[in-house]
Design a protein that fits this description.
With about 600 residues, the chain is mainly beta. It has helices at about 5-20, 45-50, 310, 315, 335-340; strands spanning about 25-30, 55-60, 70-75, 80-90, 110-120, 125-130, 135-145, 150, 160-165, 165-175, 185-195, 200-205, 220-225, 235-250, 255-270, 275-280, 350, 360-370, 375-380, 385-390, 395-405, 405-415, 420-430, 440-450, 455-470, 470-485, 490-500, 515-525, 535-545, 550-565, 570-580, 585, 595. The protein has 2 domains: about 20-225, Immunoglobulin-like, CATH 2.60.40.1190; about 235-515, no CATH class. The chain has 5 helices and 33 strands. Strand 7 and strand 8 (about 150) form a beta hairpin. The protein is globular and about 85 Å long. Mean pLDDT is about 85; it is low at about 1-20 and about 590-595.
Length: about 600
Amino acid sequence: MPSIDKIILFLATFLFSLSTYGQVKNLDATKTDKPVIIDGNLTDEIWNILPPATDFIISHPTFGKTSSHKSEVKITYDNYAVYVGAYLYGNPETIGKQLTERDKIDRQDVDIFTVGFDTYKDRQNAFVFRVSSAGVQADAKLSNGGTMYDANWDAVWESKVSIKKDGWVAEIKIPFSAIRFSKNKLQNWGLNFARFIRKENENSIWSPVNPNISGDVNQWGNWNNLKDISPPLRLSFSPYLSGGIRVSPTDKGSVTEYLKSGGMDVKYGINESFTLDMTLIPDFAQVQSDNVYLNLTPFEVKFDEYRPFFTEGTELFNKAGLFYSRRIGSMPAGTSAILNNYGNNANYKINKNPGITRLYNATKLSGRTKNNLGIGFFNAVTKPMYANVTNLNTATDSSILTEPLTNYNIIVFDQAFKNRSYLSFTNTNVLRKGNSRNANVSSIDFSLFDKNKKYNFFIATKYSSVWGNHLKKNGVKANTSFGKISGAWQYNAGINIESDKYDPNDLGYLQNTNAIDYFGSLSYIYTNPTRHFINHSYSINLYNAYLYKPFVWSSFEVAANAFYLFKNFWDIRFAFNTKPFWYNDYFVNTDTYTAHF
């Protein structure tokens, strides 16, 4: 039987650990009057007088333990930038130096240092800057408490690294022009530091982020008393010119096209909170091409977005899930008809049939006020597209409209509240010249978290209206859910309703409508290490689906999963999916349905 002294020592250690894990760390800001030279050596005088942020706590694989290696991070600022100096101790022979693409440093043979700033201290949104031991940068914007990660966001900042005899150093300069913050003379920011040690496969963090508590940014530490800093003028111009010749061989000879384009991108910080982005006659010819898919399903393939103008800052515009940016500049609606009607007709020759829709211009205005009201406005205008066809019998050319002049609009108002709660309104609008098809979709989304962020209630309603020549249909979508989102035991249940005429696809993406889905889930997540496992988890999910109109049963599905992470970082996952009853697939085609087992 253990002695009373050992029991007291254990209880004292346990209580100290609980207070350490639950404690939000604080760091007082110190301003420097001399710019820091970014050379990766921490030789500037300011680094000798600043107190370090230390005592990193492991966040993965075993939350709560002290990091296996010592870390010392110092931070300062002047009137123009924030400076971070990190000395990350370890064996230099085990530090990876693999060079990678920018933003592609995860799962590579490198160690990583990260710093994050919640500049408005709303506990929901943040800027994250990361640098690898090979000197490769990565950055991102976090939103919704850190659950949404926008790696497409890119900023201009400076960093240098160096390998030392007892570890490695990361020195970073983040200009104020790269981030957004208020004009207040005295400011407090949310702050956190983290490091990843590849050899140990270990993530550690300065201010602990408990995995059993929902959210990330809401658990960060504080950087207090930043004084007399002002948001700088944020203005940049990116003009371009491009040209080329494209020769396309056909069975009736070759078609030669002369390609020429020119335009400009403009980014302007209207004030400390809002940024205006504009692109005039953009040329996306240099953007990465889509992969080729053999689509044997009845549903449209959803492609990734590679165009920089559309990838940045979409967390606000797509909060309601109504913005699929590839709709803008997509293939003209009449392109396939031209191929079908004239491509195999010996009496006609297709001289020109554009595969993309060109843009005249696009504009984005987005930001968040000091009262945490996010406001977004988006507008894009695409030019009319024409195919050119020659009648070989009469030797006459005809221009055929394949896509009319189109105007795309999005308006978003997103009010953030305490504890990650929010109320959001989104409206998307598409107007086409000639009224061939117009569309309007509105959404109200409300998410409520309790004070301890253990429970979440969510409800959203959407209304779509599509009209045009001989076309008119209105539809609704509604979904609600309630669940326990923190702790070892978690659960969630809800319902999703989509009417048969709900259609957001002029500017959004939805595979099919006319459905009512009931869903529920139960999971157990054990994050503490055991004799054999670092962590393990179990989950079961239930789905019961009906057709909205007529209201008939469609299918019932059960999905169960088990995951085990071993001490050597190998893992194994078991998955079981079943539809125990005959089910009806109403979406194979629009005329019939198929019964399956």
